[in-house]
Write a structure and sequence with these properties.
The chain has one helix and 30 strands. The protein has 354 residues and is mainly beta.
Length: 354
């Protein structure tokens, strides 16, 4: 089956955006020592008071910090298939929602975990969590593995669709055991099967903490998409960060995917209550005769900041190592982990964008 979008002429699908402000993050970056080791951080998430880190492995794959003092408050979870364990937790399913509710996706399930801060017998603040098996929900087989898994509401998980259905997302109501599909791919005329569409239009996705919006950054095209779920019929905003028509960057004049050296644009995304923070590093990837990847950089490492109304606000210029980041919901801070500094967390106070 082929998925196509017909059009009479090559019209662009998004408004070109330029950035009115640029900031160099390293100039105002704060390094804060911590009392525990963070060995291979795979993801970070923040509330206005807490910072969560997901580690590659260990006796506590989740570690929790006060996001002002970076005091370590506790952790939980190890790898495995037991009641209090995680079966290879995915970094792209590590999310935190209103009320300090953490969601985690592993290879088989999604789990919600309520985290609270209490004081122990020594009057020390500690993070407590309950790994309740009733809040662990088996994923449908067609969803495994589920990339960018997020809670759409209290009973539904959403993620990137990688089936033969012609939709960007797949959803699963784990209470009623119902699979559904949501939202078409961007309207680009690509002569491709749905499986190939999922490859060419791979994306990074976050759902707002109140579950009212979906923000999407595309890997192989310079496109940001916002879907507002609060409207009676969902509305969308599309923004691009290069002048060329989006279709020209990915397909030829007959809609066939351009299969020369691959170009990568966006590599991650975080959102606050007001803004979208999209990790961006434009680079070209080719392969030598012995299949070794060769990288040609066309930009530095950056975070592109947008609002949800479709306006580009700022570029944050990053050092190369700053690829693992989290943002507070109130847009006060960005946090970074350093791959070679296991006993530090780095913090950047965000400027006012408006």
């Amino acid at each position: 089956m082929l998925t196509t979008f017909s059009c009479n002429k090559r019209e662009d699908i998004a408004e070109y955006q330029t950035f009115p402000n640029e900031f160099i993050v390293a100039n105002d970056l704060e390094e804060i020592p911590i009392e525990v080791d963070l060995f291979i951080v795979t993801e970070m998430a923040a509330t206005d008071s807490l910072l969560f880190t997901l580690l590659y492995k260990g006796d506590e794959v989740v570690k929790i910090f006060d996001n002002q003092t970076l005091e370590y408050l506790g952790g939980f979870g190890s790898e495995g298939e037991g009641p209090n364990e995680f079966f290879y937790p995915y970094q792209n399913g590590f999310r935190v929602y209103e009320g300090n509710v953490l969601s985690m996706v592993d290879r088989k399930s999604i789990r919600t975990i309520q985290v609270s801060i209490q004081k122990d017998s020594n009057n020390k603040r500690v993070a407590t969590s309950t790994l309740d098996e009733t809040q662990r929900h088996q994923l449908a087989g067609v969803m495994m593995p589920l990339n960018e898994g997020s809670l759409l509401n209290d009973s539904t998980v959403i993620g990137l669709n990688q089936t033969s259905e012609d939709s960007q997302f797949i959803t699963f109501d784990f209470v009623n055991k119902k699979i559904d599909y949501a939202h078409q791919f961007p309207p680009i005329n690509i002569e491709a099967t749905p499986f190939e569409m999922a490859h060419w239009l791979n994306s990074y996705m976050k759902i707002s903490r109140d579950h009212s919006k979906i923000a999407i950054a595309y890997e192989k095209i310079p496109l940001i998409r916002v879907i507002d779920l609060k409207e009676y019929q969902s509305t969308e905003v599309l923004m691009k960060t290069e002048e060329a028509p989006i279709a020209d960057l990915i397909v030829d004049s007959e809609g066939r995917p351009i299969k020369t050296n691959g170009i990568i644009y966006y590599y991650d995304m975080e959102i606050s209550n007001e803004y979208i923070f999209a990790g961006y590093h434009k680079k070209e990837i080719s392969y030598s005769e012995n299949n070794e990847p060769q990288h040609i950089n066309h930009s530095g490492n950056e975070i592109h900041v947008f609002d949800f109304q479709g306006n580009a606000l700022a570029k944050l210029k990053l050092d190369d190592w700053m690829r693992q980041f989290a943002v507070t919901p109130n847009s006060s801070y960005l946090y970074f982990s350093h791959p070679e500094k296991e006993n530090s967390i780095f913090r950047y106070e965000l400027p006012k964008f408006k």
